[in-house]
C-alpha cells in the first residue's frame, strides 16, 4: 500500500496538458480541424504544456479523431518536444498486437515522446461498436488481460516468443489507464500504472476514484508512486463576459449529446435560454461540473480551489471553443498562470 497523505499543490507548479477531440466546427471540414489541431499543438508546446493527447471517437460528425494513432503521428511530426499520445485508445475496439505495433512504430519514430492511454468504453454508440468487429460484451477481465498482453508486447524483447510486436518490443511505451469509474481506478492501482480520470464529462466519481487509486496502488517496474491526472474543461478569455460567450459552444455541444443529436460544433450564442429548457440546463451543467470559465483571475482562483480539494499531480485541459484563435488564446492565458505571471 502507498502512503495516502496528500500534499496540496499550487497551480503554478502543476503540469498542464491538452486533450483534443479534434472537433469539427460548423462550416468547416475535418481537414480544417486537423490543421487547427497541429497549429494548437505547436502553440501549447511553446506555452510549456507537457502532453497533447487525442481521443478516440467514432460515428460522430463533430469529432474527427477516429484514426487516433494516425493523428498522433501527424501531431508528433509537426512538433518537437511535447509528449503526444492517446486519451485514449479504446481497447475493446482493437487487437492488442495491432495497438502494440502502431505505438511501437510511433515510439520508434518519435522516441521518448509517445503516451498510450487506454480506455474500455467503445467511444461510440452500440451499433457502431458492433461495426468495429469486436466483442461489445467483453468483461472487465478482458480489459485487464488485454492491458497485460500489451505490456508484454511493448516490454523486453523475447526472441523465443511465438508472437512479437515488431516494432514495439523493447520500446516500453508508457501506458496509462483512463476511466470515469471506480473500476478503472482500482485496476490502475493494482497494475501500478498512472491514472487519468475523465472528469471533464463524468464528474461524479472523481474524488472517490482518486482516493481508491491511491489506496490500491502497488508499485510496479514502471511506477513506484501513484501518479494521477484529471481532465477538466477550461475556457479562458481576456474578460469574464467573453469567456461566458465562448462557453455557449461547449453548452450546445453537450446539449446535442443529451438530445442524441449529431451536429457540428456551433458558434457562440448570446442567450442559452433560447436553446435549452430548465431540465436540459441542469443536466448539462451537472455533466460539466468541472468546467472553469472566465478571465485570468477567475481561472486562477477556481483552478487553485480545485487543486486544494483534488489530489492530482497533473491537469489535462479540454476546450471546446468554436473560434480557433480564441482557443489558442485560452490555452495561452492558462499557461501564463502556471508560469506565475498573468497575461
Write the layout of secondary structure elements.
Elements: E1 16-20, H1 30-47, E2 51-54, H2 68-78, E3 83-90, H3 96-109, E4 114-119, H4 126-131, H5 140-154, E5 175-179, H6 182-191, E6 195-197, H7 206-216, E7 228-236, H8 240-258, H9 278-287, E8 291-294, H10 296-309, E9 314-318, H11 324-338
Parallel strand pairs: 1-2, 1-9, 2-3, 3-4, 4-5, 5-6, 6-7, 7-8, 7-9
Helix pairs in contact: 1-2, 1-11, 3-5, 6-7, 8-9
Pfam families: Bac_luciferase (PF00296)
InterPro entries: Bact_Lucif_Oxidored, CmoO-like, Luciferase-like_dom, Luciferase-like_sf
GO molecular function: oxidoreductase activity, acting on paired donors, with incorporation or reduction of molecular oxygen
